[in-house]
Amino acid sequence: MSNGFYKNRRLKSFVFFAGCVLVSTIPHIFHFKNFFYLTLLISFFIACYGLIIISKNLKRNLSSINTYKKIIDDKLPILDILVAARDEENVIERLVERLFNLDYPNNKLNIYIIDDGSTDKTPLILKRLSKEFDKLKIISRSPNAGGGKSGALNYALKFTHGEWILILDADAQLKKDTLSRLFSFVRDGDWSAVQLRKSNININKNFLTTCQSMEMAMDAIFQYGRLCVAGVSELRGNGQLINKEVLLKCGSFNEDTVTDDLDLSLRLLFAKAKIGILWDPPVMEEAVENIFALFSQRQRWAEGGLQRFFDYGEQLFSKKIELIQKFDVTYFFILQYALPIISMIDLIISIALFELPSFWPISLTAFTLSGIAVWYGSSCKSEGPVVQNLNLMMMLVSLLYLSHWFLVIPWVTIKMSLFPKKILWKKTLHTGV
To answer: What is the C-alpha to C-alpha distance for residues 408 and 39, in angstroms, rounded to an integer?
Structure first.
């Protein structure tokens, strides 16, 4: 992308932030007589659509989601598994051993590990593993190759020859029958891409890992519901299966974004390529274990999420997507990105003026919907690690935890407005739990 494109991102970030500030300050300046009733009306509509989305998961629970018709080996497609790895000495050996233990025809499975300029023992471990596993394909890039994770994946695509691409992180763990169940799901749904539900391995490590697991469950509830209602769903990076032909037609992975999965999700939506959400089996991964790693990770997610809207905003209102999809994407853009900024500015002004926040009904509605989704996603029957002894206190704590987004989003938007962005691969540290 051109430098002008980056300038447009900064300008759009500034305009977006300024617009949110304006919206949050207007009620405190003009003191509209019926503004409170307007926020109640908006909250009502937000609640209605949110509850409709959550309720669609009842359909999933009532269906026979754990039964599948196994595809005979001759009918299974050729699959290429890609893992972009940088400094993954703690987990790479476990990953390779488990991938070669998956239940899938040996002549139809290719495993590629991209060593993207590792400076730890990852290259040495991979060299040793290549002698143990003849079919292990190692692709090496220099540390300054550029493009981040997307650059590594795009480089590896040139070596693949399968019909489907499965993207995994180095800490990923799959059940032995995941691949056969995955392609059974693809066949039944005619999907162009599929995202496995994400589940945390180290769920009981500490307070943060437990909360992240509940957050993942909430996300899966909203993902499945959005797919059912509006045909909108998103890839989540780890555990994403993509038809290679569709991927190439969409332009492969965008090397000018920090979240290739969210960027690709929008381009697939424009191409009318359906992304399925497979609840079980999940892809299991590590949750970050300290507050500094959490905020670093969430800043990257927030920035990438905003980048895609700034990059493709005009197309979202074109004829490329249906009206219900435009509404759904706008609905979640406002709740995920605009509301945190508006609410924080509103709160700061209210404290300064000793007034009640103007937008509290909307914020309360958003948190209530999140709480319902957390409870439902954490308590419904699922494979993989689950939250133990879910109770009201844990629910309230999880909502308090989710409020960190009301700090992350404003901070990231301000940074995007003021500073130029250099695309770097800020990977999450994996400990091998």
So the answer is: 24
Candidates 76, 71, 73, 130; CA nearest to 100 is: 130
* Residue recorded with tokens 């040139």: 158
Range 82-105 average pLDDT: 94
pLDDT score at 64: 45
* 232's tokens: 């909108």
For residue 105, what are its two tokens? 């025809």
Element containing residue 314 per DSSP (H, E): helix 291-316
Pairing of strands 79-85, 109-116: parallel
- DSSP structure class, residue 121: S
Domain boundaries, the chain: 1-63+191-433
Supply the mean pLDDT for the chain: 91
Which of helix, strand or coil describes residue 109?
strand
- For residue 278, list its beta bridge partners: 196
**Distance between CA atoms of residues 260 and 251, nearest Å:** 12
Contact 259, 305 (CB under 8 A): yes
Model confidence at 292: pLDDT above 90: yes
pLDDT at residue 1, as a whole number: 44
166 by DSSP, 3-state: which? strand
Helix axes 35-55, 360-379, angle to 10 degrees: 10
Quickly state the pLDDT bin for 431 (edges 50, 70, 90): low
Q: Of the candidates 246, 243, 91, 83, which has an alpha carbon nearest to the alpha carbon of residue 168?
A: 83
pLDDT, average across residues 307-327: 92
Tell me: pLDDT of 158 over 90. Answer: yes
CA–CA–CA angle 337, 342, 343 (5° rounding): 105
Share in percent of the chain as helix, strand, coil (round to 5): 55, 10, 30
Total-model pTM? 0.91
Q: CA 344 to CA 321: how far, in whole Å?
A: 32
Report the pLDDT averaged over residues 253-272: 94
What is the per-residue pLDDT for 4?
A: 44
**Helices 3-30 and 291-316: angle between axes, nearest 10 degrees:** 100
Q: How many CA atoms lie within 13 A of 63 on its CB side?
A: 10
Chain centroid to CA 233: how far? 10
SS3 9: helix
Identify the residue whose tokens are 């539900």.
197
| Rounded CA Rg of the chain | 22
